[in-house]
Structure formats: C-alpha cells, structure tokens
Amino acid sequence: APEAQALKPGYHITAAMGWMNDPNGMFQNKAGIYHVFYQWNPEAPIWGAPYWGHVISKDMVHWERMPPALVPDTDYDYDGVFSGSANLLEDGTPILFYTGVSNFSELKYYKQVQATAVPVNASDPRLKLWKKSPSNPIISQPPPDGTLAQFRDPVSAWKQDGLWYTVIGSLESCFGTAALYSSPDFQTWQPAGQWASQASVGQANAGQCVAPALAQPGVGQCDQVGAVCRMWECPDTFQLGNDTWVFKWSDQSKTRDPFAMDWYILGTSATFLGNRSQGNISSRGEDTSRFQSTLQNTPQSVDYGSIYASKTFATSDGRRVLLGWVFETSAGCVEQCSAGTNFTDSLGWQGAQTLPREVTLDMDSRALIMNPVQELTLLRSTLLYNKSAVTLPSNGSQELNLTQSSSMGRQTEIMAAFAVAANGSQGGQQPFSIGIQLSTGQGTFTQITVNGTAAAIANGSLNIAQAGVYVDRSKSGGHTNTTTQGGPIPLPASGLSVPAATLRIFVDHSLLEVYALDGRGRVTSRIYPAGMEDSWNVSVFGAFGAAPATVDASVWEMGSAFDPKQAKACC
Ligand code: FRU
After folding, report:
1. What are the extents of the domains in the chain?
2. Separation of CA 313 and ligand 1 centre (Å)
3. What are phi and psi of 316, to 5 degrees?
C-alpha cells in the first residue's frame, strides 16, 4: 500500500516485513563485516515467538538482508529466541548468546534459559548459517532470589582475571536486577552476585508483588500476570575510558511513551569480598565484582523518545556503537499497544533500529554523548541547501527554499548551527530558543526546539548554562501521537562553551532522530502525518535573548540502507 511505503524508514535498519523489536548480538568479525541481529516475527507485523533476523554491512550504513540466523525450533526455545548478545572468542569465532523461551502453553509462564550458537562455517565472512550448541541450554539456574520466568537478555561477556563475566536481566525479590554470572570457558556458568539492581542505582522497586495465583515450579513470587514488579530488560555494561564503566538498562515499569525508558549510569567496577546486604536484597556470601555508581547519582536517559532495548558493541577500531529499537507509537496508543488496535498493525511491518550511534564519555558533564557513526555521511546524496550566516528574523522563522526536490522530507539530514548575530552580544544570562520546523504541504508541522539560558559572549561564542531538547508533535497530524517528547540536556557545571548551538535532524519517513548540542541530547520520535508523499518544507527559527540568531544550515537527501538493485550490497 502506498501509505505503508511512504511511512517505512528507508535508511534505518528495518525488517523486510513483519515485526521487529530489539537489536541483538552485534559484532564486527575479523574480515571487518558488521553483523546485526534483531528480534523478528516474520509471520505477522505484531510481536510473536521471535526469530533472530540478520543483516550485514561493511560500513554500518549499506545493509544486506540474510536469512534468519536463529529460529524458535528446539524444546528450550520454541516460544521464542529472545534477545541477547555476541562475543568473539579468543580464536576470533563469533558466538551468539541468547535467551531460549519455552513452556508458555503448558505452564502459562515463559521458562527462560540461556543458550549459545556458533557459525556453521566460521570462515564465511557473511556467516549465513548458525548452529545452536548441543550443550544448550547452558544456563538454567536463575540467580538466588530470581526466577526462570524473568531471566533474559545476556550481555556481551568480558574477560577479567581468566574468567568470562556476563550479566542477565532478572527480577529478584521484586527488584529489577542485572545478575552477574561467570565462566571459565563460555560453557559452564555460575551465578556470581548482582552486578547492579534497582536498589544499587537508588531506585525503589515498583511496589508489592501480587500473591502467586498460578504458582508453578520455578516461578517466583512476582511472575504472575498482573504482578506489579518488573524485571530489568536488556541490560548492557561496558568499560569506557580508563576506569569508567557504563551500566544501561531498559525499564519496562515506566509508561513507555513519552518518558524515557532506557537509562544509564556511570560508575566503576569494584570487587566485593564477603557478605553484603543491599536494600531489600537478601545478603549472600559473595566474592565478586559489582558495578558501583560512584560517578553519578541519578540515572540519565539514553534518548527521550520512542526507543527501548538499546545495546552497544565494540568495533575493531575501538569505537563503542549503540543501536536501539525504535518502536511505533501512533495516536491514542503507546508502544505496540495490543495487537489489532494500533494503526501501524495494518502496514505489514513495524519497528526499526536507530542509526548506529558512536558513544563517547564526557566527564565534564558526567554524561554520554551520542552521534551517528561518521560513516553515515556516505549516505548523503544531493545537497539540497547549504548557506552560512543567514540572519533569522527575531520574531519569526526563515523558510529554507527546498522545493526543488519532490522527495524532500522523506529521507533527509538537516544540520543547523545557530550563533548569536555579530551585533547581538549581551551581558548576563539570556533565555534562548532555536529550532527547526518540518511542515507538510497539508498544513501540519512538527517542531523541534532547543531552549534554555546562555550567556552570549562578545566574540560570538556562547556559554550555555542549561538547555533542553523537545519534539512537539501536537500539530504533526495524521496518525501521530500528539505528546511532546524531550527533556533536559546534561551540561558541564561551568556551562557549555561552543561557537554555536547545533541541531542535527535525520528525517526518515515516519522516523525522526534529533541530536542536539553535538549529541548531548537525543530524541527519537515517530510521526505519521498525512501527505508523506508530498514535498515538505523546512524552516529555522531562533533568537538569543533579544539578539537575533544566525544559522549555518545544510540539508542533504539521503540514500537507502537496503538497495534492491544490489543483491550483495555488503560483500
Ligand atoms: C525487550 C524484550 C526482551 C526480550 C525480547 C523478546 O523488548 O521484552 O526482554 O528478550 O523483547 O522479544
């Protein structure tokens, strides 16, 4: 259908058809090929017993579809090959680490165990076929206070003092936790304490457990339908910089839209010897490592928009790259809603991955900065607009004349840097507001704003004291959810001194990714306006106090992630 095509993202990773959710098991193999897997239901555009879909690329921007890597077809995973990660073993062989799910129709709860798979032919750089380990499941023991009904999404393992470590999303005594496991050989795994928990990052648990109505062997207290305690899904943890560790989790207890659901906190890895007791978590004799959120007191948001289940991997040149599931969220309905009630159920496809984002650490703001990987510029095609130092009217907006392209708006990148006009220097802190408006020919528009306070310094540089980034969808029209998404941008305590305030926006049909102040604030939004097929207009606006802003703006048309003319786009 034309609408389904007009709305489907073109340069983000999507499934050919059916339902997509979490990114899984990303890695770059020895031949340099990037492999990305994802939760996929090829049978219907709604969630259902997931496969691992598979795409490959040599540059993270041009992708090629592969056959599904893992299919729910064994006695321990027939209800779904759930999320997980990947590692390169010491000899360079990739290993996939996932959660096998079974038992639902028999016992009315999902039994979750951890399993692995390796390539059928490890010397094939495309890694087309995968085989599950004959010793699966390799972990069927939940953490001490946990349950096999809420035990999933193993993290890429790391090696320390001769042992592999991983963490697995869990629910222990009604707290979301990241349970730590260790192994000498990636085969035999032992519970090794809690890497982090709701208690250890200073969060209360969601409430009381509902008394077990459907007690089943292996099912803990909080697993019944209707229980209010929620596990932590899709944790991720990795070292970034010399001593800093990042811990990230997905909080399903939050209303999924518009509030952030993917959180991270910065800390260190500490070794605990002997007993400990933490919040309501029972104490156990442990002699192991634990994440300590010593560098930050409050969790920070990965992205203020419609993303969930994000996770990272390390490229062979040492970059940390994040992908996240961008879910559909249409008017009157959040996340995937119930099957059959969401407008997007009728499109034949749902879900996408964020652009691959390079994650860097900024100790001045105690926060992560994320920007699309530099390879993304390979997708830029026609330069639709490119002007410097355009002075903006102080009480209105300036339209960029982009009418030369009829596809304008569907696949574009917009880069804008806002500075104080030369004659505009002012003393003291001034409120500022800068932004971009995307409007369709049908009179609807989406407005993206960065506002806050800044001291405008005489030489034209800015010191931003505080700022937030927002996507206002109240006038976006069509099937768009009208909520505004956004929130505060973490900044250094002494303010952010920059020549200009930047806003970089990726428009990909119904998917909008916004990067504010050089990747310090991020919002991923979905918009489903009428008239997607028509040309769009872009306008820019802004002022710093009473002073007008000037803008350097460039707009590119963007290519596509999957080129139907190139059967072997990757390699
Ligand atoms: C998160 C999640 C994971 C699980 C997967 C199943 O979106 O619920 O916890 O492994 O999706 O598709």
Report:
1. 380-558
2. 18
3. -70, -20
Strands (E), 4-108: 18-28, 34-41, 51-57, 64-70, 80-88, 94-102
From the CB of 171, is ligand 1 less than 6 Å away? no
Token couple for 352: 């996408």
* Closest-CA residue to 484 (of 456, 448, 508, 455): 448
Expressed in angstroms and rounded, the spacing between residue 103 Cα and the centre of ligand 1 is: 16
Q: Specify the length of the chain in residues.
A: 571
Please state the atom number of ligand 1 nearest to the C-alpha of residue 308: 7
Here the tokens at position 434 are: 């800068």
Cα–Cα distance, 272 to 193 (Å, whole number)? 10
Which of these, 477, 510, 234, 235, lies nearest to 350 by C-alpha position?
Answer: 510
Distance of alpha carbon 164 from alpha carbon 166, whole angstroms = 7
Ligand 1: does its nearest atom lie under 6 Å from the Cβ of 10?
A: no
pLDDT in tens, 153-176: 999 999 988 899 999 999 887 788
Task: Indicate whether residue 502 lines ligand 1 (CB < 6 A).
Answer: no
Task: Provide the greatest CA pair distance for the chain.
Answer: 74
- Cβ(99) – ligand 1 distance below 6 Å: yes
Establish whether residue 550 lines the binding site of ligand 1, counting it when its CB lies within 6 angstroms of any ligand atom: no
C-alpha 230 – ligand 1 centre gap (Å):
13
Q: Which fold has domain 380-558?
A: Jelly Rolls (2.60.120)
- The pTM for the full model equals 0.93
Q: Whose CA is nearest to atom 12 of ligand 1?
A: 82
Q: How far apart are CA 564 and CA 375, in angstroms?
A: 20
* pLDDT score of 253: 62
Report whether 140 contacts 154 (CB < 8 A). no
ipTM confidence score: 0.99
Closest Cα to atom 6, ligand 1: which residue? 82
